[in-house]
Write a structure and sequence with these properties.
By secondary structure, the protein is mainly α. It is built from 4 helices and 3 strands. It has helices at 15-28, 32-39, 54-72, 82-102, and strands at 3-6, 9-12, 46-48. It has a 3-stranded mixed β-sheet, covered by helices on one side. Strand 1 and strand 2 (9-12) form a beta hairpin. The protein starts with a strand and ends with a helix.
Length: 103
């Protein structure tokens, strides 16, 4: 998930953070078919919600909203270095777009 694609919008996520985000989404995923999608080769590098069935995209999207908020917390502290601020902004953008799209 070095990028997340929703409705044609590509949102970058730094690779080390993407790994943490991916891991947390996997933990939150309850449906075995969702876990299978997330386990596919390449899912860590790019996850396109546009290519998923609507119900599946919604399930994974809602899990990713929660995961993005959780992973973002340590990067969102007052006085954080610029690199952390950038990571927090990337995760916030992912979370906001998925929240608007999937609720």
């Amino acid at each position: 998930m070095s990028e997340v694609v929703v409705r044609g919008v590509r949102l970058p996520v730094r690779t080390p953070v993407a790994a943490a985000l991916h891991r947390r989404v996997m933990e939150l995923t309850q449906d075995p078919t969702d876990a299978a999608v997330l386990s596919r080769p390449g899912a860590l590098m790019s996850l396109s919600f546009d290519e998923l069935e609507p119900e599946q995209a919604a399930r994974i999207g809602r899990a990713m909203v929660v995961a993005a908020a959780e992973v973002r917390r340590p990067y969102s502290v007052p006085g954080a270095p610029p690199a952390d601020v950038e990571v927090a902004a990337q995760l916030a953008a992912v979370g906001m777009l998925l929240q608007r799209t999937f609720g």
